[in-house]
Amino acid sequence: MVQAGKLIARRRAARTGRRYVPRWRVLAVFILPALVLYTIFIVYPLVSAFRFSFSEWKGTLEVGFAGLGNYRDLLTIYPYDEQLWRAFGHNAVFFVGTMLIQNTVGLLFAVLLFRYTRGKRTLQAAFTTPYLVDPLVVGYLWSLLLSPTFGPVNAALEAAGLESWALPWLGDTRTALPIIILVNAWQWVGFPMLLFSAALAGIPAEYHEAARVDGASSWQAFRRVTLPLLTPAIGVVSVLTFIGNFNAFGLVYAMAGSTGSPAGSTDVLGLLFYRVAFREGGLEAIGRSSALAVLMFVFIFGVSMLASSYFRRKERALL
Amino acid sequence: MTSTVTAPPVQARTEAVRPRRPRRPGRVAVHVLLWGYAAGALLPFVVMVANSLRPTSEIFTEPLRPPLSPSFDSYVRVWTEASFSTYFLNSLIVTCGAVLIGTAVSALAAYPLARYDFFGNRFLSAYFLAGLMLPIRLGLVPIFYLMESMGLIDSLLGLTLLYAASGVPFGVFVLGAFYRSLPLELDEAARIDGAGEFRIFGRIMLPLVRPALASVALFQFVPLWHEFLYPLVLLRTDDRFTIPRGLAQFFGEYQTDWSALFAGLVLATLPLFVLFVVATKQIIAGLTAGMSK
Questions:
Q1: Which of A236, A265, B64, B188 could connect to A173 by a Cys-Cys bridge, CB 3.0–4.6 Å?
Q2: Mutating which of A109, A134, A258, A269 best tests the B interface, going by the most B Cβ atoms within 10 A?
Q3: pLDDT surpassing 90 at residue B69
Q4: Which fold has domain B85-292?
């Protein structure tokens, strides 16, 4: 009887065109597992991170409300006041270096490969292989390859008669960060290449040809026609590079340890956060590391949003 | 170059139509650059494999020699002595478990959210979607203390549940889009035939989104397999370590045994390489199977 009644109700719902909605109990069975898992392990910790950053801590004991105290401590108390800005500066250098090297080379490869026919697939596969590998593995691999005593890189330089170039790459405060930027670029260059390749394929060939017919040189046509039309792709690549670089952890940890050796010359925000939270934060570790996490989030999220809207405006100006 | 600029338009047009003569030196330079870089992108991996096949003493004295008499001794050492077999098993349990749970609960939740208009749907959809924009690392410290209070520190179960939860926003988002693309008449017809909601889901909806399930699972698999920060913080004893966590330990302990270090790196990389070779075919097969129906 109940079954029949349900059936009639369903038929009526189907006939009258009103969308049928399952009962609450049925909906709950579908939605609750994901909802519970996601709320406990993702949402609750994220919300707590904000709360923790405004609380005063004695070890794991929450003893009161601290207002902006933890944030003030991060910016004023030694050694955080020094390390925070140093790490921030390294992240900024990391980002600028990656934009200049990785993304420019990626664009160059995309343009060169655009009219390339034989072996194009092989080349693309080779360029993108390193990014399938764990950044941690990449970091450890390069730290072995670049070792000053037994590393094959310096051995090859010496064999080629470039003894003066066989430097302790990761042991020198001047070369360590640039080397990490290069290794990171080596790993990720396939990503901007693929994105720019897709964007280039979407630009009608007539635009470039028209510019050439009007007497523009190859470079002028690229600079004045192709490059502006790549704005959306450049925007996506820039924002994703920014987010990736400011969240860097595994690669730097593998190449420079948790302190960003040598002498903190490769310390980045990710490492600093890890140290404050779990290594040297002391009794105030929870509050200060949460404050640092919130600061990083607000900065990364805010800049990404601003950059995205900037590129969207530029895009609209194009059309 | 300058001749085209000053030339009259008609002449320029005919010149543009004629196939341009390849400028020899330029073409050669492009070939050299591209193939040279391709070699540069792969060479470190070749060195990695080559050095894992020869003894450490030889790597130290002859850094540039290929393995003339390859031996797998270092692999045996890494697999048994350095407990890579344990790391491997742990990574497999945690990653597969998390991908299965994460994909399953996402597939369930995305279905009513995508296909039924009920009170609270919009809020719940936005709630799940918000997770796509928030970095889960922000919650690292609270997660540590949450796990501690639940007795899940140094536990593979804790890591599995955390990983599974981290895949929910992406899974709900992608699978929702797939459910929405299926025609409404599909479940209406089944409902008129008397099928219940779970039957419609299991027999009609799920088989139709199978290719999407495979992609969602694969997309979750790779970052989880590589995740380092969470195991670094949440795992403590050697026999619970996943591969990335174990690798960090191993690089401290085996500093002087380079042959073993290279072998460890090869072992850490191999599974993903195999997965890509196998899964690419699988996904294409899944897609075409879905289309032919």
A1: A265
A2: A134
A3: no
A4: MetI-like fold (1.10.3720)
